[in-house]
Amino acid sequence: MLVPYDFHIHSCLSPCGEEEMTPNNIVGMAQILGLSAIAVADHNTARQLPAVSRLAEEAGILLIPAIEVTTAEEAHVLSLFPSVEAAMEMGEELYAALPPIRNKPDIFGYQRILDENDQQTGELEKLLINAVSFSIDTVFEKVRACGGVPVPAHIDKSAYSVISSLGIIPPELDVKTVEISPGGIDRGFAPPDGEHYFAITDSDAHDLETMSGHEPRALELEELSVEAVLRKFREGLT
Predict the structure, then answer these.
(1) pLDDT tens by residue, 162-219
(2) What is the residue range of 39's domain?
């Protein structure tokens, strides 16, 4: 079956996410766009996922629990998990591994946690867009240890990508799937040894306009389930 997807969406919990990126607005926009599967991947936290999960289930949309991790090398890793609980557990480890630098909402934006009614239930103090103290190999190990799949994010970009930070995709990471930004797709970007990777592209939306303006791609899956998505990303092109 073909599954239209967007696996890289930021909510208003990410300081760079617009206030309009509430759980209800994200799921509502996904419905309008005809998406069958989405992932909300805030920076270094999973605290918005419980509300999004409940709303996505009600809307009949598959939610892949996710976090966009910023490694110690300042490489972004789109980390996808088998359950909200697994993502939340990893998120707490990541938050503890952030430097003790407080967010300044007037500069970076608010970091609001919302419930399924888009009502604020909390706010995170540490600045989420900083790098955690875990190296990229440690992040890959931790994500895989809880049944998740780490995917190097927007590898075509000149900042905050595995290639821009490390110069290569380290072979010891055993990467099977990579993410290329829509701009990279338009430019015809091809990763090093591109024939070895399965490539996805997502909106990386921080606002509704970007989310709605992204032309979603479809993933060929045996069934519509979290495990089917993760299995595809683990196997890559094999």
Answers:
(1) 999 999 999 999 999 999 999 998 998 988 776 689 999 999 999 999 999 999 999 9
(2) 2-235
Number of H helices, E strands in the chain: 9, 11
Query: What pLDDT, on the 0 to 100 scale, is given for residue 196?
Result: 84
Q: Report yes or no: 151 and 178 within 8 Å, Cβ to Cβ.
A: yes
Q: Residue 99's Cα: distance from chain center in Å?
A: 21
CATH number at residue 223: 3.20.20.140
66: left (phi over 0), alpha (psi -120 to 50) or beta: beta
The structure tokens listed for 171 are 């072979």
Number of domains the chain contains? 1
Q: Which residues 6+ apart lie within 8 Å of 40 measured at CB?
A: 9, 10, 11, 26, 48, 49, 52, 63, 66
Strand 76-80, strand 37-43: pairing? unpaired
- The answer on pLDDT for 231 being more than 80 is yes
Query: How many angstroms separate the CA atoms of 20 and 13, rounded?
Result: 11
Going by C-beta distance under 8 Å and a sequence separation of 6 or more, which residues neighbour residue 161? 75, 76, 152, 153, 154, 155
Instruction: Supply the pLDDT for residue 194.
Output: 63
- Look at the pTM and tell me if it is higher than 0.70: yes
Q: What is the DSSP string of 117-172?
A: TS-EEEE--B-TTSPPS--HHHHHHHHHHTT-EEEE--TTSSSSSHHHHHSS--GG
Q: What is the mean pLDDT of residues 43-66?
A: 98
